[in-house]
Amino acid sequence: MERKITHKDYLEFLKTIRLDDYRQKYLKYKSVEENLPKQIQILDFIYKYYWDDRKFLSFEEFIEVVINAKKKDLKDYNRQRNGYDEFSESAFPLFMKGWIARQYRTWVSILTQIQLGYLYEELFPNDQVIMSEELDRKKVDVRVLGKKDYGVKKVSSRKDVNINPEEKEGVIPITYHVPNINDLRNPFLKNGNYRKPYIDFIEDGRLDFLNNGFFVFNKKVFANVK
Questions:
Q1: Which residues touch 150 (CB under 8 Å, ≥6 apart)?
Q2: I need a labelling partner for 20 at 20 to 30 A (CA). Which of 170, 190, 213, 214 fits?
Q3: What is the Cα–Cα distance from 8 to 210, expressed in whole angstroms?
Q4: SS3 breakdown of the chain: % helix, strand, coil, rounded to 5?
Q5: Domain spans in the chain, listed from the N-terminal domain onward
Q6: How far apart are the first and last CA of the chain?
Q7: Measured between alpha carbons, how far is 160 from 177 in angstroms, rounded to an integer?
């Protein structure tokens, strides 16, 4: 019998993600920020590989699979967006860099939501957890079959980021705030006291901080939700 992939396996995968390298690589590319048509979005692929099939591809492996599957749609959208004829490749590399950077941010965000599903499975093994693109679009990130729905919402204190949790009726909100990574890696002020973001993070206690900079939920996240 094939061994079931568990929350522990998923955490080991998350630890391998080179977040610092990716930030440096993709931070400068923000040229594709509009609402994208469904045919060149990647939610369906993320849930298929990392939840349904439980195949933990690196981002490079994953995005290569997606590009091969959606290359015609990507070319068509680039032509429509930038006005190039269907035989032109001149703008495609630039468009693709912006699109890949956009998809990287989506990838990291959804991986965090999926981690909550694995965690729930570990804590409540008799329940059935469902996660999918269809549910995601309905603002349901984790469905416990026959019991409850959860919606995961990141709250940002940055003024240049508009991330406001929107609650949906019947969906239990799990909001979380991710502090600046530097405040956790260097938690002390010059006077030796802890930085306030670090104190807030420790007092909240629902997230753990992996060495590579990935934030993951721990079992305390379900302590105060019904």
A1: 116, 140, 141, 142, 143, 144, 171, 172, 173, 174, 225
A2: 190
A3: 13
A4: 50, 10, 40
A5: 7-221
A6: 35
A7: 15
Cα–Cα nearest to 136, from 120, 116, 156: 116
The one-character DSSP state at 194 is: B
The list of the chain residues with pLDDT below 70 reads 1-2, 84-91, 156-167, 226
How far apart (Å, rounded) are the C-alpha atoms in residues 207 and 217? 5
Looking up tokens 């195949």, which residue turns up? 55
pLDDT in tens, 121-149: 999 999 999 999 999 999 999 999 999 99
Query: What is the three-class DSSP state of 221?
Result: helix
- C-alpha–C-alpha distance, residues 205 and 142, integer Å: 21
| Helix orientation angle between 92-123 and 7-15, rounded to the nearest 10 degrees | 140
Q: Give the phi and the psi of residue 142 in degrees, each rounded to 5.
A: -135, 120
